[in-house]
Specification:
single chain, 275 residues, alpha/beta, five-stranded parallel beta sheet, 5 strands, 51% helix
Length: 275
């Protein structure tokens, strides 16, 4: 089968510079509506991946996202949101971008073309067979990511790929291929648009469902979130008020004393059991 980069085919819309702002916005919005449907088609593969990640993480495994450009930035973004949202140590979900920290804000020339650097970057974290490495590449052809996935396979490390093209080379290099086919971008080849939106949705799904299964959510609440600002302290306090029927001030005192909603509720309940 001949590999065709659907994500880089010509836009369905022409003469963009001649359109009104309203027309541009409506057309972009119409294209964005396709993204959730494309992600829906990939749910079986996402479920398969999450089902394999959870038992590995319960034994000490980690998630690594790897990508270049927009794809790399989205992996780093998702990883950076795990500690404040779920109270997990930053070492549990790690985002690696071709070109390193500089590439988060500025393009690094030729960084994504090195087939060996991805594996070298993983070595800094002592990657092992309990870990999961997820390569993200809209085109499906990024050498930096493909080289890392191929080397992971040799070392028995679970791998997955998130791409916007069917039968992409990155899919062939991964144990689990998540192919989210969103079609041509509104601006031809601009994968920061639909492809990037879909990548963020899939990363959200992966880490959120993993964290729920790791016990970092109770009911539907972020009971392990970091209390990094007044808004989150208030949110946590109200969770405790709802859970334990305590006055607001007492709930806040417990929260600040124990550092998280879960710890505060557990400590309160244990104290009452002893009584």
């Amino acid at each position: 089968m001949t590999f065709v980069k659907i994500s880089e085919q010509a836009s369905l819309y022409k003469d963009l510079e001649k359109k009104s702002v309203g027309e541009i916005l409506h057309e972009i919005n119409n294209e964005d509506k396709k993204v959730a449907l494309a992600v829906e088609q990939a749910l079986p593969q996402i479920e398969n991946l999450v089902s394999k990640i959870v038992p590995r993480m319960k034994r000490g495994g980690r998630i690594f996202y790897m990508g270049a450009g927009t794809s790399g930035r989205l992996g780093v973004l998702d990883a950076s949101e795990i500690p404040p949202t779920f109270g997990m140590d930053p070492s549990w979900v790690i985002g690696i971008i071709a070109g390193g920290e500089t590439a988060l804000r500025n393009p690094v020339e030729n960084a994504e073309d090195d087939t060996k650097q991805g594996w070298l970057d993983l070595q800094k974290f002592n990657v092992n067979a309990l870990d999961t490495v997820i390569g993200i590449a809209a085109s499906g052809t990024t050498p930096y990511v493909i080289g890392a996935l191929e080397e992971c396979h040799k070392h028995g490390i679970l791998t997955a790929a998130i791409t916007s093209n069917p039968e992409a080379p990155i899919s062939q290099a991964a144990d689990i291929a998540i192919e989210m086919i969103v079609g041509p971008e509104y601006v031809t080849g601009s994968s920061r648009m639909k492809s990037g939106t879909g990548q963020k949705m899939i990363c959200n799904m992966i880490t959120t469902s993993v964290m729920i299964k790791m016990g970092r959510v109770k009911g539907n609440k972020m009971v392990n979130m970091q209390l990094s600002n007044a808004k989150l302290v208030d949110r946590g306090t109200r969770m405790i008020v709802e859970e334990l029927s305590l006055p607001y001030d007492e709930a806040k005192r417990l929260l600040l004393l124990h550092g998280s909603v879960k710890n505060a509720v557990d400590a309160y309940n244990e104290g009452h059991l002893r009584d």
